[in-house]
Each structure stands twice: as C-alpha cells, then as structure tokens.
C-alpha cells in the first residue's frame, strides 16, 4: 500500500502542471541521458516516472491485463463517431458484469492460496464465480465502456482489492492500480467515456464489513489528485462531449460513516443500495437529488424458478426479464431517463446448478438448444435497430461473436 501510494505521489508530482499523455512504456535505460520520453505536447517526462507507471500497471495486470497504448481499432474509438451533443441517456453503452473475474481459475486460487489461507478461505469451484474471459484492456479495445467492480478489504484489512464472493481475484491489482490503468487508457483514447460501477462485496473475507476503514480508503482513491483530473465531478448525466476522456462513477455504495462534508460533495451518480432493491426486474430510483434524475434498473440476477428447474427454464426466465425491460427502454415512456440493465445471471444453488457461463452461453448440449441468454439476445437485438436500450452489462460479452457488434450497431451516429 505504501509503495503504491509513493508511486502515485511521484507520478503526480511529475505531471502536476496538468494532465499528460501516458508515457512511453518501453523506456530507455537510465544510463542513456540523451534519450527522454515526451508527453503529447512535446514536454520531456522523467524516465523514472515512466518506470513508476509501468510498475503500477504491472501490479494491475492480473485483472487489467498487459497495457497496450497503441490500439486504435474501430471498436476502441467507437464513441468518436458520435457528436458531442449526444445525450448519454440516449446512448447504448455495453458493459461487463463482475468484470474483474476473467482470470479466476484453479491456477489463480493456487497462486493466492497462501494469502487466502490467512483468513481461512478455501478453494471453491471457479465456475461459480467467473463471469468473463477477457482482461480489461481487451474489453476496452473491444468497445466495452461500463465496468461492474466489486471491492472489499484485502485479507490484511489495509487496502481495497476485488472479489466475487469469497473469490479473491488478485492481491496486487488494487483499486488504485486499476484506476491508473483506466486513466492511462483514456489518455490514449480521449474520444471515449468510461462508466465505473463500484459496489462493496460483503461476502468476501470473514466478518467483512463496509466499515469506516473501507469507506475512507474508497474515498481517498476516488478523490485523489489523479481522480480529480480523470473522474467527472458532476452528479448527473449530460452529453457525451462533457464525458469524453473521463470516468463517470456509478456509485452503488453509501459513504454514511464519513463526515457529511466529505460525502455531500462526492462526485458521481448515486445508486444507494437501499434504493436498488434485490433481484429487481424493473426498479426505478433517483440518482441525483438535485435534478431528480431517474434511473430504471433491471438486475434480475437470480431467476425465480421452481427448485430443480432445468437450465432451459432458468435461461428463459432471465431472457424474458431482459426483453421485457428492453421493450420498455425502447418505448417512448421515459425517453430522457437512464436505463441500466444486466444480461447476467446465475442459479448455482439449483440442482443442477446453472453457472454464469451456462446462463450466458448454454451448457453445450441438447438441453439448451437455443444456447444461453447471449445467443438469444442476438436475434432479439436485430429487431431493435434504431432503439435506445441504455447501459447493458453482459457476462462473456464476446460470445457469440455477433453480440457486441449487433449491440454497438443498434443506434448508429
């Protein structure tokens, strides 16, 4: 924690005069005094700052992936084609549910076993917790713009890391290091806007609690000098132009244990857990008290079916919830309100269990002849051309191959 803090302090001492482009990561030897990296304006940057940033990105790599600065594929800059005055609530924005879980496997558990053992956490079936197959850098370059991030204390109660239930995703990929990955990517893709959803994962380490320490660490990370440059400081959604090159916070947390002077001026859209509801098919809440801006939420993560239901029945229940919500979003009922939904779901308590992968992609047998929710959505989405569906969070978004392409093509610029 202290090492990362020192790195962050140094980086922003170097770049303190303003926001700079990400330094070149293939830095020259410190013995080469005639060669120096430069920022976007041609101003020399310190090689040591380059090394420091690389260290932070390396720490983040078990979740973020290995940073690639140069990608300018069509999907990595898809927002560039949209006018600045486009209202964000009118856009279709793809996201990933439990985004940090892509690398969660038996091998990951074995590497982290000495750490997890400090709190008596034993191995679990990774299929119950894994919701993605690609690192963040691939997601970003593929066109994903919204990320569902579940945080809690690490096993030492000293920093914030990412969990899915009792599944620790990484010890080095802390909240701070991942934020720097997003910031560096935005510097290389200034036409894009990112939406980061943060939610406390209460079922991680034993006796885990959203206590003062957790809230203080979260507040410090999201109000640091870096954060104030890269995170939008407003509490509502406006236009794409106002959000380009920025992170918009989707705050699925409260800061009720902090002084009101801190929580009152905290940036981002506030989706209080008390207002979100549990397993909602269609819930409405106010996310900005000042403007009374309304969001409609579908987070039907556990389909309500009879005990012992087949995978086909469980998938069908979730698919119906998605399409009902999408039909509402595409109607004229609330044209200037935010719609945020999840195509993800699970039913691991069922017998047989239906994991996130089975729900998204089917089980590969005749028992799920139409595949999973993702497969079924492709044909549905083809009938929604020109319609606004809002922010949609997927599991295993890259499968089938047509899914993301079809979603991004719904409402062309």
Please specify the SSE layout and strand pairing.
Layout: H1 2-14, H2 47-64, E1 93-96, H3 106-116, H4 136-142, E2 146-153, E3 160-164, E4 167-168, H5 175-188, E5 194-200, H6 212-222, H7 225-230, H8 240-243, E6 247-252, H9 260-263, E7 269-270, H10 273-276, E8 283-288, E9 293-298, H11 311-330, E10 338-342, H12 356-361, H13 373-382, E11 391-394, H14 402-408
Parallel strand pairs: 1-2, 1-11, 2-5, 5-6, 6-7, 9-10, 10-11
Antiparallel strand pairs: 2-3, 3-4, 8-9
Helix pairs in contact: 1-2, 2-5, 11-13, 13-14
GO molecular function, one term: phosphoric diester hydrolase activity
Keywords: Signal
Organism: Cladosporium halotolerans
Give a short summary of the structure.
This protein is α/β, with parallel strands linked by helices and 413 residues long.
């Amino acid at each position: 924690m202290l090492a990362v803090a020192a790195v962050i302090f140094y980086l922003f001492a170097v770049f303190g005069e303003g926001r700079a482009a990400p330094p070149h990561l293939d830095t020259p030897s410190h013995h080469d005094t005639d060669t120096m990296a430069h920022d976007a304006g041609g101003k020399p940057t310190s090689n040591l700052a380059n090394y420091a940033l690389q260290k932070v990105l390396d720490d983040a790599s078990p979740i973020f992936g290995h940073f690639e600065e140069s990608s300018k594929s069509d999907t990595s800059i898809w927002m560039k084609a949209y006018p600045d005055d486009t209202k964000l609530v009118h856009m279709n924005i793809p996201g990933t549910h439990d985004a940090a879980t892509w690398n969660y496997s038996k091998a990951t558990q074995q590497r982290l076993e000495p750490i997890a053992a400090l709190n008596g956490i034993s191995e679990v079936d990774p299929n119950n917790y894994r919701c993605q197959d690609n690192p963040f850098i691939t997601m970003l370059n593929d066109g994903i713009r919204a990320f569902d991030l579940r945080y809690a204390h690490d096993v030492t109660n000293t920093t914030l890391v990412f969990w899915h239930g009792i599944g620790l995703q990484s010890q080095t990929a802390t909240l701070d290091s991942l934020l720097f990955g997003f910031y560096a990517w935005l510097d290389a893709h200034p036409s894009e806007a990112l939406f980061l959803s943060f939610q406390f994962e209460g079922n991680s380490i034993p006796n885990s609690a959203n206590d003062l320490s957790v809230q203080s660490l979260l507040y410090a990370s999201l109000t640091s000098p870096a954060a104030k440059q890269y995170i939008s400081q407003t509490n509502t959604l406006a236009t794409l132009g106002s959000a380009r090159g920025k992170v918009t916070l989707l705050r699925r947390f409260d800061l009720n244990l902090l002084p009101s002077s801190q929580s009152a001026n905290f940036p981002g859209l506030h989706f209080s857990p008390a207002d979100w509801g549990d397993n909602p098919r269609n819930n409405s809440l106010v996310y900005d008290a000042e403007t009374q801006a309304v969001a409609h939420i579908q987070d039907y993560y556990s389909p309500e079916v009879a005990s012992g239901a087949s995978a086909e029945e469980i998938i069908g229940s979730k698919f119906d919830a998605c399409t009902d919500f999408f039909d509402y979003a595409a109607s004229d009922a609330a044209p200037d309100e935010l719609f945020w939904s999840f195509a993800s779901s699970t039913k691991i308590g069922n017998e047989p269990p239906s994991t996130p992968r089975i729900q998204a992609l089917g089980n590969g047998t005749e028992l799920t002849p139409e595949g999973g929710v993702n497969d079924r959505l492709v044909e549905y989405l083809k009938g929604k051309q020109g319609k606004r569906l809002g922010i949609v969070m997927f599991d295993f978004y890259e499968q089938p191959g047509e899914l993301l392409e079809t979603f991004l093509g719904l409402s062309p610029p």
